[in-house]
Design brief:
Number of helices: 3
Strand order of the largest sheet: 2-1-3
Structural class: alpha+beta
CATH class of the largest domain: Alpha Beta
Number of domains: 2
Order of helices and strands: EEHEHEHEE
Distance between the termini: 69 Å
Radius of gyration: 24 Å
CATH superfamily of the largest domain: Ribosomal protein L9, C-terminal domain
Strand content: 15-25%
Largest sheet: 3 strands, antiparallel
Number of strands: 6
Helix content: 25-40%
Length: 147
């Protein structure tokens, strides 16, 4: 029996795929749980229309992500870190600090998108990757200076 998957099913296929399964598996598991529908001509048209809409939306998201990438990479942040008499830092620069600085500059980036492996505890210039939607990654230059 051919079915169209409405959601990703592990070891079977991804959303929108047409797969052949045994009739009992489709009737007793996939269809009642809303994971699939029977592959009819009408359902195939619905899935194709949905796929076209999803592709168009994905292109729009990717274009927005590319624009945001250009905006992020065209800027350089300067963050201040308090240091003691012997240049020993008090505190650190975290993803929260970077996110706040970007927000003050007018760029809305989510905190979890900033790929900082550990807080910055020394002075210097750092390249911080920022993961944007649609698998786009921007590199942000962050300068950490004495306060």
């Amino acid at each position: 029996m051919d079915v169209i998957l409405l959601k990703d099913v592990e070891k079977l296929g991804t959303e929108g795929a047409t797969v052949q399964v045994k009739p009992g598996f489709a009737r007793n598991y996939l269809i009642p749980r809303g994971l699939a529908v029977a592959a009819t001509a009408e359902q195939l048209k619905v899935v194709e229309a949905r796929e076209r809409g999803r592709t168009k939306q994905l292109q729009q998201v990717k274009a927005q992500a590319q624009t945001l990438k250009q905006q992020v990479e065209s800027r350089a942040l300067t963050l201040k870190l308090t240091v003691g008499a012997d240049d020993k830092p008090f505190g650190s620069v975290t993803t929260h600090d970077i996110c706040d600085a970007l927000t003050r500059d007018g760029l809305e980036v989510e905190k979890h998108a900033i790929q900082l492996t550990e807080p910055i505890k020394t002075l210097g210039v750092y390249d911080i990757p920022i993961r944007l939607p649609a698998d786009v990654t921007a590199i942000l230059k962050v300068s950490v200076v004495k306060a």
